[in-house]
Amino acid sequence: MTPDSTQPDATAPEPVTDETEYLRALVDDVQYVFFDFDGPICRLFAGHSARKVAEEQVRWLEERGLHGLLAAGVRGEADPYVVLAAVDERHPESDLVADLEARLTHEEQKAVLSAWPTAYADALIRTWWATGARLAITTNNSPGPVASYLSDRGLIDCFTPHIYGRTQNLHLLKPDPYCVNRALLAMGADPARTVMIGDAASDYLAARAAGVRFLGYARNERKLRVLQEAGAEWTVSSLAPLLHMLAGGAR
User: Fold this and answer.
1) Which keywords does this chain's UniProt record carry (predicted)?
2) What is the DSSP secondary structure assignment for residue 15, as one 8-state letter?
3) Fewest Cβ atoms nearer than 10 Å: which of 106, 163, 202, 241?
4) CA-to-CA distance for 225 and 170, rounded, in angstroms?
């Protein structure tokens, strides 16, 4: 796993910008912070191609004579989660779906070894935790690989036991708010004092359905466009301003 060499000095003076005030208005009274995993915390498939994982899923189905389960467009899909969802839609809660989900979990676990930390994410998590905020993971990834990554980065204590990931009930993946609501209930969290950080439209929709605030992390223009089209109003292209704002307030 590659270390995050871009972490700033948390003791550096806080830049005073309009963005700082924008973020302060969103999170200043927040007590609970829910992170999506793949995106805001790391790029899980940075070194283990998601496209190849999706292609392998399709090949596995075809070898079993099950290619008819996938529409033509899905067969060329670069996202393994879309392939899994397409099969689940045709055969929900079947042994076939369970096997395919287990294979995806195995690929996620392999991907942990080459996952790329999102710039400033480690320091942001530690800073927020140090200020007394309670943190949770609310993700469509399997919880096992998530816990492995967080352990490798020395972050697991910031979240344990609140890691809410994919279950066998795939219809409850985001944009369904199930994982967000699980975190709210388990932590006794007030939705009005909770923010979720995610990078996908499904994250925003799940947060909205659960009644929690949402901050979109858009590392490129495509991500930004998708979030804005979904309705997300609060977005950042880097976690650095949020970290500087929190670090300044902690002093």
Assistant:
1) Hydrolase
2) P
3) 106
4) 26
